[in-house]
Design goal:
- There is one protein chain.
- The chain is α/β, with parallel strands linked by helices.
- Helix content is 36%, strand content 27%.
- Strands 6-7-8-4-9-10 form a six-stranded mixed beta sheet, sandwiched between helices. Strands 1, 2, 3 and 5 form a four-stranded antiparallel beta sheet that branches.
- The chain is elongated.
- It binds adenosine-5'-triphosphate.
- Adenosine-5'-triphosphate is lined by residues 14, 17, 19, 37, 39-45, 186.
């Protein structure tokens, strides 16, 4: 299978600090992939290694089937640090400068301005743009060479809700147009709605990867039983201590929902009064926080 991004055992150490450890990241052709993690998790370091801007301490990177390095990033567009634009030139003129430098025809400028929804403001000076418009111009610059793979590092950082919504819509449009997009974020809500798959990185390690449905799929059971302390003890014996959490006077169990009848019989058999036992849905936010919590504990 042709994989636009594939890393194996990718690691980066800065002195005594391991910023990225043993990372296997796979982005499939045509998907919008959300690279999610809290601040300092190692997202930027990973993206910089993908682009050949930082040398890995260990592991391999394949980008569009090639090993990245100087001059070998054909087909890849990236917005990884706030791009440098001339403040007193218009958005369009800034793109003209970049297009000339990149050997891209002037006709492409109108196309990318349209894609990022800046056509009506393209003649305005860059300095008068909102942060969201500046970011969208950065994406336009990354799109000049009509890349097959677009890498965006926290493109919504610092944007207001309207700017975030615009950026989300833009990424969705690019994905729909067949561009493979790898976008990092520390805010789950930003990627949840637009990504086909999500990888969660905590402490430099990938702790989960999959579609939103897959990540949330491991829902569990919610049990209300009396007396609570005995219910906790018995539930821990039955399914394992790490799968039982006490939340709001009840038990949240990380077990397959089809074990409900068995669990009910066991708890009742142990003399407990089971008041409620139901399927517990989890939203991605909860999953993300659990992953971050668990991942941080593992790293500590
Ligand atoms: N050049 C460097 N020298 C030393 N440490 C570094 C360097 N670059 C990054 N780090 C450290 O590596 C870790 C990962 O940083 P990185 O910027 O990759 O995280 P991030 O997930 O992108 O975070 P954020 O969301 O805050 O941008 C952090 O602890 C950071 O301080």
């Amino acid at each position: 299978m042709n994989l636009p991004v594939q890393t194996q055992g990718l690691s980066k150490r800065y002195g005594g600090l391991t910023a990225v450890r043993d990372l296997d990241l796979t982005v499939r052709a045509g998907e919008v992939y959300g690279f999610l993690g809290p601040n300092g998790a190692g997202k930027t370091t990973t993206l910089r290694m993908l682009l050949g801007l930082v040398r890995p301490s260990a592991g391999t990177v394949r980008l569009l089937g090639r090993t990245p390095g100087a001059g070998r990033l054909t087909g890849v567009g990236a917005l990884i640090e706030g791009p440098a634009f001339y403040p007193y030139l218009s958005g369009r003129d800034n793109l003209r400068v970049l297009a000339r430098y990149a050997g891209v025809g002037a006709d492409r400028i109108a196309t990318v301005l349209d894609l990022v929804d800046l056509t009506s403001r393209a003649g305005d000076r860059y300095t008068g743009y909102s942060l969201g418009m500046k970011q969208r111009l950065g994406v336009a610059a990354a799109l000049l060479k009509d890349p097959r793979l677009l890498i965006l590092d926290e493109p919504t950082n610092g944007l207001d809700p309207a700017g975030i919504a615009d950026m989300r819509a833009l990424i969705r449009r690019l994905g729909a147009a067949g561009c493979t997009v790898l976008v990092s974020s520390h805010l789950l809500g930003e990627v949840e709605q637009i990504c086909d798959r999500i990888g969660v990185i905590v402490g430099g390690r990938m702790v989960a990867e999959g579609s939103v449905a897959e990540l949330c799929g491991s829902a569990g059971l919610r049990v209300l039983a009396d007396p609570l302390d005995q219910a906790v003890t018995r539930a821990r014996e039955l399914v394992g201590a790490d799968r039982v959490r006490v939340v709001n006077g009840g038990l949240d169990l990380s077990v397959e929902p089809d074990r409900a009848a068995w669990l009910n019989a066991e708890l009742v058999g142990a003399g407990l009064a089971v008041r409620e036992l139901r399927h517990r849905d989890r939203d991605l936010e909860q999953v993300f926080f659990e992953l971050v919590e668990r991942g941080t504990a593992d790293v500590a």
